[in-house]
Design brief:
37% helix, 25% strand, alpha+beta, 4 helices, 131 residues, YdfO-like fold, 6 strands
């Protein structure tokens, strides 16, 4: 992986985790770095970024002290998504809300323009990017 690509991914990841950029900015910066998709696993505290050529970058993050809820609440996940889309919920709060809603992780399909959120028993919520 080219050093510039690695630096762009890492700085975008860091800014998002600090709550200083919105999801739309994350998407734009990662697309510019040619990221095809990325997966966030709340349970392992890891985000993995995938490039079209097969290169990957793992970025660890501090796992929350709060336990991820057992039951998946799709409505609460959607509410967290809406708040993020409206710029009212930044990523640290988004993580907290989606974990309270039983989300164990998600995959952002930048090329496919959607996100798949997953619960403990394989429940899913698919959210398409707004136009």
């Amino acid at each position: 992986m080219h050093a510039t690509t690695r630096a762009t991914i890492q700085s975008t990841f860091d800014a998002s985790n600090q709550g200083t950029i919105h999801f739309g900015q994350v998407v734009g910066q990662l697309l510019a770095a040619q990221v095809e998709s990325y997966q966030v696993d709340y349970r392992s505290g890891r985000a993995t970024f995938y490039l079209p050529d097969g290169d990957t970058l793992d970025c660890p993050f501090e796992r929350s002290a709060q336990r991820i809820a057992d039951a998946f609440d799709g409505d609460a996940v959607r509410a967290a998504i809406r708040g993020a889309q409206q710029g009212q919920v930044m990523y640290p709060e988004f993580k907290r809300r989606t974990q309270q809603a039983g989300c164990v992780g998600y995959t952002v399909w930048l090329a496919g323009r959607h996100v798949t959120y997953v619960g403990r028993r394989g429940e899913t919520h698919l959210e398409r990017f707004p136009d």
